[in-house]
Structure formats: C-alpha cells, structure tokens
Design goal:
globular, single chain, alpha+beta, 3-stranded mixed β-sheet
Length: 88
C-alpha cells in the first residue's frame, strides 16, 4: 500500500526532494514540490524562486541529474516508480 499524503503521513520521495532543494537554494521558503500521477508513474514537480533555478540545475545539469537519480532510487526502495520535473 502506498504511503498516504494526509496530515501526519509523509511521502519519502517528496521529503528527499524538498530537503535537498532547500539546502541548495538561497530562498528555501520558495521551494515547492507537487505530485501528480501519469500512467502509474508518480511525477514530482519542483519549483523554486527564479534566481535559484541555476543552483538546482548545476553545472552542465549535474545537480539536476543527481536529484533525479535520488528520486528514482528512493522510489525504487519504496516499490514505486517516480520522476522529477524541474519547473521554471
């Protein structure tokens, strides 16, 4: 059974993305992670303050690639499939 996103229950994938993104940016209060589902795949969308987007993407996209890898590994550990979209 998938974890509930009700009050008191936490989504481990969403938590991983939020914690790491907030640690990377200058404006952690602007970090927002939303969850949608497409064809059995959970899709997490990350938005930040406009000036912080470069910090999330990183040099040559390495930070974004690492974040996406962490999302995939966390999802696999919990028996799910997930993907991270970085929105500007």
């Amino acid at each position: 059974m998938a974890p509930s996103t009700e009050l008191g229950a936490t989504d481990p994938i969403k938590t991983v993305v939020e914690v790491i993104a907030k640690a990377l940016v200058d404006h952690p209060d602007a970090v927002k992670v939303t969850e949608n589902e497409r064809r059995g795949l959970k899709v997490y969308s990350l938005t930040t303050a406009p000036g912080d987007m470069g910090k999330i993407i990183g040099r040559q996209g390495r930070t974004a690639a690492a974040l996406r890898t962490l999302v995939a590994l966390t999802a696999e550990k919990h028996g799910q499939r997930a993907q991270l979209d970085i929105r500007d």
